[in-house]
Amino acid sequence: MANGEKTVKSKVEKVTNTPVRKRLPRHEREQMIVQEAISFFAEVGFEGQTRELARRLGITQPLIFRYFPTKDDLIERVYQEVYISRWNPWWEELLEDRSLPLKERLSTFYKAYVKAIFTYEWVRIFVYSGLKGVNINRRYLALIRDRILKRIMTEVRAEQNLPTPAEVPFSEREIELAWGLHGGIFYIAIRRWIYEFETSEDIEGVIEAQVASFANGTPAVVRQMMEVQTDKTGATLEATTT
């Protein structure tokens, strides 16, 4: 074979064996970037550079910025994808369903809730956002306080026939009681995904025990707290019934 033919053949083989990057539709490329960003930030935190993220994706950094003009835009999308998209409005309806005992509502809610949040990415991104000053954790905690914890304490009052929050606003100490229940359950995920410490495989059993402890003791504590509060203001403790 002549040298010229060998050269042509070599070039043809080189071109033929070179992998061709598939041209993805825009929405698929965007979703690919988001999913890799979720894994990336969960692993290295928010100090991770988009340059490194691009390298992991096998694309250029400018291509990331075509979809997300700033790193903050990408982080916002991660928040929407990991946290808001997993929020189930049914949780709020369940907590207010007084046809069920409060203990049953709380157990059902938290069993469903942990299935949505007990993941490596969810927990680690949440913790990293607090360490780095990214507002993901603050926004999500405000959501928990307003849509979950206040509902829980409203239902605790209803079980005791105590005034509604509209009649007597929640005190900080009262909301802290709900934080105690919520935080205790979330701490299981912290031990598993942050400390890498062995946790119980019977998560549902742990939830039932924590909920039972809360439901058996908290209503009486709330009544005592409100008795002190109403003594100071002269308000009527018992809720008006019709």
CATH class of the largest domain: Mainly Alpha
CATH topology tier name of the largest domain:
Tetracycline Repressor, domain 2
The biggest sheet, with number of strands, parallel, antiparallel or mixed sense and barrel status, is: none
Number of DSSP helices?
11
Count of strand segments: 0
Structural class: mainly alpha
Q: Strand percentage, roughly?
A: under 5%
Low-confidence stretches: 6-20
Shape: elongated
N-C termini distance: 103 Å
Helix content: over 70%
Q: What is the name of the CATH architecture of the largest domain?
A: Orthogonal Bundle
Helix and strand run = HHHHHHHHHHH
Question: What would you report as the Rg, rounded to the nearest angstrom?
Answer: 26 Å
Outline the structure in words.
The chain is elongated and about 65 Å long. It contains 11 helices and no strands. The chain has 2 domains: 23-82, Homeodomain-like (Arc Repressor Mutant, subunit A, Orthogonal Bundle), CATH 1.10.10.60; 88-232, Orthogonal Bundle (Tetracycline Repressor, domain 2), CATH 1.10.357. The protein has 242 residues and is mainly α. It has helices at residues 3-17, 26-44, 50-57, 61-67, 71-82, 90-95, 102-117, 120-132, 136-159, 172-193, 203-233. The protein starts with a helix and ends in a 9-residue tail after the last helix.
List keywords for this structure.
242 residues; mainly alpha; 2 domains; 0% strand; Arc Repressor Mutant, subunit A; 11 helices; Tetracycline Repressor, domain 2
